[in-house]
Write a structure and sequence with these properties.
The mean pLDDT is 93. This protein has two domains: 117 residues, no CATH class; 93 residues, no CATH class. By secondary structure, the chain is mainly beta. A hairpin with a 2-residue loop joins strand 9 and strand 10. Helix content is 10%, strand content 36%.
């Protein structure tokens, strides 16, 4: 996939609006009951980068970033300020934030995931763009050392252990992460007069699958 491993300026994404989007097909039957189905196993994040613009300098920075990505052509990293950690935003990342799985004595690769729980139901979100220097990994109660005990692929979010964790041992991780996205438009329309009057450009951004 065409992807540039560069983050959209966090100072510009800070004021943006966005979040998860799902697709659900709803069919209403003749008796008034419904049948609901979804073709998506995972949600897709959508954002509006235009709302983060506070000055003409910000707009120029946005334009430069947009041009360097050739509009919709190349994806990039996006910091979702509402959801960018394996834990709550107000606390520090810990190696036991998220359970990735259990060892079986042979498996060495584990995908980073973040679990969203409500009641008896959970959604497991694959994390494919961890932030360098933030990933902490542990087995049971022991934190491991990157570069010695494991390596992390920052392009896929896959952890590879130097030796497979023993059977039934809990593998966990904590991390910060970005969302892989692209611009959802091939043009940006800006009026300096309108911007100074409080009207911001519409710059849609959408998550891409990796």
């Amino acid at each position: 996939m065409d992807f540039h491993d560069i983050r959209f300026p966090p100072s510009l994404s800070f004021g943006s609006v966005g979040g998860p989007q799902r697709r659900t097909d709803v069919v209403t039957l003749a008796n008034g009951f419904e049948e609901r189905n979804t073709p998506w196993a995972h949600s897709r994040r959508v954002y509006d980068a235009g709302l983060g613009m506070r000055s003409i300098d910000d707009v120029q920075a946005l334009t430069a970033f947009f041009e360097a990505r050739f509009g919709q052509m190349y994806g990039f990293r996006w910091k979702d300020w509402a959801d960018f950690k394996s834990c709550r935003s107000a606390v520090a990342v810990a190696f036991d934030d998220q359970v990735l799985g259990f060892g079986d004595g042979t498996l060495t690769d584990f995908q980073l995931v973040k679990v969203y729980r409500s009641g008896d139901h959970s959604y497991y979100r694959p994390i494919t763009k961890p932030v360098q220097g933030t990933v902490r990994v542990g087995i049971e109660q022991d934190e491991l050392q990157e570069g010695i005990d494991f390596e992390i692929d920052l392009a896929t979010g896959v952890i590879r252990f130097a030796s497979a964790p023993d059977s039934d041992l809990v593998v966990s991780a904590g991390f910060e992460f970005d969302v892989p996205v692209r611009f959802d438009t091939d043009r940006i329309l800006v009026s300096v007069a309108s911007f100074q009057a409080g009207q911001v450009p519409n710059v849609p951004v959408i998550e891409v699958r990796v």
